[in-house]
Design a protein that fits this description.
The protein is mainly beta. It has no helices and 11 strands. The protein has strands spanning 4-7, 10-13, 18-24, 31-39, 46-51, 57-59, 67-72, 77-82, 91-99, 104-106, 110-115.
Length: 116
């Protein structure tokens, strides 16, 4: 069974940076989009950044200019570079791969905590 595994979360002070990475434990065929979501305490999961199959990237308005999503198609990995972190960026970050015809795969989540 294919699993997505995130890494790179942790505790950082406001203004600092973190880099999240996500890798698949097996082969996933027909990947369409790869991206990152987050869920803050008491809030719904929200899209942070996503790369479409064509390579275009979308970002939540709250992270534009601070976060950068990138991918390595051959390695089936996706990364999220997070700069100028704010306390409101705190939450559990999940990577997700959507496929054509096989639904979506999700990681188990990695905690990001930004202290003020």
């Amino acid at each position: 069974q294919v699993q997505l595994v995130e890494s790179g979360g942790g505790l950082v002070q406001a203004g600092g940076s973190l880099r999240l990475s996500c890798a698949a434990s097996g082969s996933i065929f027909g990947i369409n989009a790869m991206g990152w979501y987050r869920q803050a305490p008491g809030k719904q999961r929200e899209l942070v950044a996503r790369i479409s199959g064509g390579g275009g990237a979308d970002y939540a308005d709250t992270v534009k200019g601070r976060f950068t999503v990138s991918r390595d198609i051959a390695k089936m990995t996706v990364a999220l570079q997070m700069n100028v972190l704010k306390p409101e960026d705190t939450g559990v970050y999940y990577c997700s791969y959507s496929t054509i015809g096989r639904g979506s795969f999700w990681g188990q989540g990695t905690q990001v905590t930004v202290s003020s």
